[in-house]
Amino acid sequence: MQTSSSTLSPRIRTLIPARLDRLPWSGFHTMIVVALGVTWILDGLEVTLMGAFSGVLQEPGTLHFTSAEIGFIASCYLAGAVTGALFFGYLTDRYGRRLMFFVTLAVYLSGAMLTAFAWDLWSFVLFRVITGAGIGGEYAAINSAIDELIPARLRGRIDLYINGSYWVGAALGALSTLVLLDPKIFAVNIGWRVGFFIGAVLGLFILFVRRHVPESPRWLVTHGQSARAEQMVEEIEQRVAESGKPLPAVDTNDTITLHPRAHVGFGEVIRTMFGAYRRRSFLGLALMIAQAFLYNAIFFTYTLVLTQFYAVPPADTGLYLLPFAAGNFLGVLVLGHFFDTVGRRQMIAATYLASAALLVLTGYLFAHGELSAAGQTLLWTAIFFFASPAASAAYLTVSEIFPLETRALAIAFFYSVGTGVGGIAAPWLFGTLIGTGSRLNVFYGYLFAAALMVAAALIALIYGVAAERQSLEKVARPLSALQE
Question: Which carries the bigger pLDDT value, residue 314 or residue 449?
Answer without folding.
Answer: 449
